[in-house]
Amino acid sequence: MKKRAPARLWLASPAKVNLGLRVLGLRPDGYHEVVTWIQQVSLFDRIWMEERRGAIRLSVDGREVPGGRENLVHRAAVALKVEAGERSLGARIHLDKHIPAGAGLGGGSGNAAAALWGLNRLWGLGLPVQALRRIGASLGSDVPSFLAGPASVCRGRGEKASRRAPLRRGWFILVKPRYSLATAAVYGWMREKRLRGEVVSAASEGRTPSYRNDLEDVVFKRHPDLRAARDRLLRLGASRALMSGSGPSLWGLFFSRERALDALARFRLGRDWERWLVRPLASSPFAPSFMGPGGEKPAGG
Questions:
Q1: Which of 45, 142, 176, 214 is catalytic?
Q2: Is 2 a catalytic site residue?
Q3: What angle (nearest 5°) sits at the alpha carbon of residue 5, between those of residues 99 and 121?
Q4: What is the pTM of this model?
Q5: Quick check: is 142 catalytic?
Q6: What does the domain layout of the chain look like in residue ranges?
Q7: Annotated catalytic residue: which of 16, 81, 160, 176?
Q8: What is the pLDDT at residue 207?
Q9: In this predicted model, what pLDDT tens digit does every residue of 185-232 receive, in sequence order?
């Protein structure tokens, strides 16, 4: 028997960073074969949802992202409704955006995963997480990783996610220029590099990538300001610094909050950079009682 579903639900939808990303080659379907190590962090969007009959309505505040049918949250809701085969299902959803789009931080994918998890509970469907991950894979390569736990290793085009032990210490500084990068464009640059016969790193599919991003070379060549930002984070004391995903966001990992705060204050590459101090998540945020890594209410910016 299905459990009684809540009438309303509030969720925190986290960002992610790629602690490692290897590009293994081009697949027959046109995507690239990758293996990547993903860690969720305490930069959140907020999603509020309420059950209603028949229609799915989505409103968005904050960052400039599309609303309605163009948003991944709406597409996730429709896909779950189709999976359930219940035309009467509906919901009113509000998305409060803080994670920038086109940043390599997985904001849209995390929103879609949160919508699948939340609506599965709100509608009392009782679908297993494997089914939600399958639906998520049809929406975007990163979506299943957000349903695999706070840290994961992803293979294939990124949709084959397996749980990994999360980081339990340290602080991240995230930095992003005002511009964004399209994932398809960045992988297109990688494809051009391979076609020119330039050496591109390869890795065994079974090996977990560690602190290396194969996309940095092609991105830094076109955006040297990102290389300068990564090097600045290292000079400020980061033990590691890397571009996240297809960029342009970068992260620096610090062992103490004090050193991270000092670096955050001293990171100056102009006014056109956004900065955040965040922590790695040690538990999944897709639960109504989730309050953040240290018991605090999740914050946006």
A1: 142
A2: no
A3: 40
A4: 0.89
A5: yes
A6: 6-301
A7: 16
A8: 59
A9: 999 998 887 665 554 444 444 456 678 999 999 999 999 999 999 999
